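User: Predict the structure for this protein chain, please.
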Amino acid sequence: MMMRTEDLTLTQEWDKTFPKSEQVNHKKVTFTNRYGITLAADLYTPKKTQGKLAAIAVCGPFGAVKEQASGLYAQTMAERGFLTIAFDPSFTGESSGQPRYMASPDINTEDFQAAVDFLSVQENVDPEKIGIIGICGWGGMALNAAALDTRIKATVTSTMYDMSRVNANGYFDEADSADARYEMKKSLNAVRTEEYKKGAYSRAGGCLPYPAPEEVPFFVKDYNAYYKTERGYHARSLNSNDGWNTIGTMSFINQPILQYSNEIRSAVLMIHGEKAHSCYFSRDAFANMIKENPYTENKELFLIPGAVHTDLYDQVDVIPFQKIETFFQKYL
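Assistant: Here is the predicted structure, written as structure tokens:
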């Protein structure tokens, strides 16, 4: 069966949350994953380059679009000599996939692999020098892809979320019990019945209106200050608007995406803010990744003192781009 790429209507004017760099060339591209979903991406190529380049695919955060943090990372790494793409995952942004605003441990891991497919056949890319960057929830998907795809030679996660863990156990594992999970699944499946009757999906809601109420936890205010202000708001971003479908992430509850992370042989750099509410995801995932793994010399957990979760979305004086560049130069 032939692979067919859909014709997508893509915004051509610059609509990112970060300024356009004059050091790189930019264009929109599309590619298809193995489920036949067409993904939209921004391709960034450093100017005045010759020969085949090392390439990097970037995605995340969870509920964001390529016009936000992933695009900033991709453009910055292109300024540093890599060919890069920042893509919208299936069902979101400018990418195809119906119904909209769904997430899948399998399909979203496949999105990274499809990005590697695309990069592998570009005339100006060395197919033996391909890496990936996953931000926030796509950090977990990046580790899953690295455990599955031997073409990926180096992986960076930034401010990583383990979406299986947070969906199954709640924040800080406060709902980590069979009874709590049963009640959650019971509630979600009741929603499924009602939505099927109506023939339409509901949205779970994105970030609270800005400014966030005083009584909510700091990490909620942290997200709010990014997604709901000029700093990070985007019209296509789920987190900036009405969020995922109510049942959109339920399959993560019993599909642990990091099950085989300790079989990753390729290089991995995990970066997290030490003050981030989410830092425990990276600490524990790194410990599990190196446990009984004979390939640990190319693995590193790098914690940034004083940094919180969204600092690694867009604060260029906090994001350790020089370290990321050095890492990819070494392993790609």
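The mean pLDDT is 97.
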